[in-house]
Structure formats: structure tokens, C-alpha cells
Predict the 3D structure of the following.
Amino acid sequence: MNAQTAIQQIKQKPLKNIYFVLGTEMFLQEQVREAFLARLNIEENDLNFSQFDLKETPVSQLLLEVESSPFFGDHRLVFAENPFFLTTEKPKNAPENDLEELIKYLENPLETTILVFWINTEKMDERKKVTKRLKKSAELIDVQPMKEADVRRYLQQTITNDQLTFSREAFDLFFFLTDASLSKAMQELTKIRLYAGENRQISKEIVQALVPKSLEQNVFDLTASVLEGRAQEALRLYDDLLVQGEETIKINAILMSQIRLLLQVRLLQNIGQQQGTIAEVLKVHSFRVKLAMQQARKFEIKTLAQLYDELIENDFKIKTGQMDKELIFQLFVLKTSQLIRK
């Protein structure tokens, strides 16, 4: 079941003895975690609450805990983090475990213990005996990252509940800057909520001021400067990234992916594809596709292909040390600016 359904069931229905929370969306993980603690009226320093990092703690110690009766209460809540033996992961220095004892417990759990496995990955190793047993004995809570449309709906509902009003431009920019990531968006929304105070109107300028750009988004600005022939601005942005500790090879790689996106968008536009279809085909944020469409239509496919080939060549030159890496990038910016201005 998904996280929202699980949270409602945890609040309202009798608890199962074993759960496994599968997925990498940190915000949903935290929501589920809080639901368990609230339902059992347990705080993290409570004697009836324990958590184990199974990359460091052997399963035998976990079993001692889950097989113990609660202290002056009805239930004991145990969180088992990083159960690597349920996945294909093989961490260094991890404890050796007798998983047969765990399998026996999964077959016959203690009724007063609520055991929750937190599996921070996309999928488990379905071939393992212990995984098969867990899936039979436990309730699954899915906390995988939501699809873009679901994240958008969730945020819009949260914003409405908070009585905030985003302009269309502000929301699109906020969604873009947070990479359509629910965890990142909810974190940044906390800042916006505090900033808003009694003024519940959120403008594009407020979003720009409060939500930081990722490296990819900074390189997006750099790409725009390069493609508009603004060499001086592009070189300033490049220098700023170097000062922030970013590597030329990484900047070049991201720029290469940006130009590849423009080329792909241009090709799809040529056969009549629209923004939504292009985003779906390329599996790219729709707002990013919108910006790419605005840029791509200014260029011939031949020009974009030429720039992409040059960036591939620059990547090879940087990796093989044929020239100073910063000089390679600077020459590309200057050469491209001259090409654009013609």
C-alpha cells in the first residue's frame, strides 16, 4: 500500500506485527515514522522504542529486542534500519548473520512487538529466502518517489491547506528548482511558509530569493548565456562554479546533457510532438522541456549537433589532458558566442 493509505491505517486500524517500508522518498519515510510513534504514543527516548542499524548491529541483537516484552505498556516498537541482507548490497565490515533465526521469528512474531524494516532502496533481492518470508509475513508500505504529476498534486494540496497562494510562474519555478522531488519541495516549502508570515502571496521573485539552485540549474543558466552569445556572462557563471568547488569536467558533462536535451527536443518538435509528449518520451521534467523548447526553436538541428559533437570532443581532451581544462571550456564559450552572433 502507498504511504498515504498506510498512515491512515496506522492511525485507525489494528497494527500488524511486522512491516517493511520500501523506497527512497525521505519525506514519506518520515511521515510513516511519525505515524508509528504517534499511534503508540512513544517518543524516541522511550524504553519501549528501539532502533538498530543492521549494517553495524547483528540480527541476533535485534532478535533479543523483538522477543522481549514491553515495559509497562502494551507494545514495543522496533525499527530495523538498513537490512542489507534483503537486498543485493554487500557492505564492507557488515556483521555476519544467521538469517534462519530471523526467518523463524518472521513466521511466528511476538504479538506485543511491532517490528518495522526500513529498506531505503528501489527493490529487494527477491531470490533470497528471507525476502520471500518477509513478503509473506509483513505488510508492505511503499515510499518510492512519486510520479511528477502526483508530486504536483500533493504540493498544490499542501499549499492550499497552508492558505498560501502561488502565482503560476512562482509554482512552476518552485517545482523546477526542487527537481519535482517531494522531499526537497517540502523542505523548501517550510522556508517559504516562514517567510510568508501574514502575507500569503508567493511571487516568482520570492521563490528565486529563497530556493537555491542545484549545479544542473546553474549550468542551465550558463547554457542559456552561451546559446544567446553572451560570452562574458557565461564565463562569469563558469568562474563562479569553479569558486564553489565544481570541476570543469563535471560542468562540461552537464552542459553536454543540456545540449543533447535541446537536440532531442528540436528533433521531436520537428515531427510535431507537443510539450507533454516530449516530457513523457524523454522522461524529463515538463517545465524543463518547456524551457528547452523555447531555446531549441532558435537553432537549426545542424547547429545543435555541431555543439554537442564539440562538447564530446572537449570531454575527451579534458580526460586525456591534451590541453588545460579551463582553457578548453573558455575557448568553447568564446567560439560558440561567435557562431551564434553570425
Summary: The chain has three domains: 3-142, 148-210, 215-341.
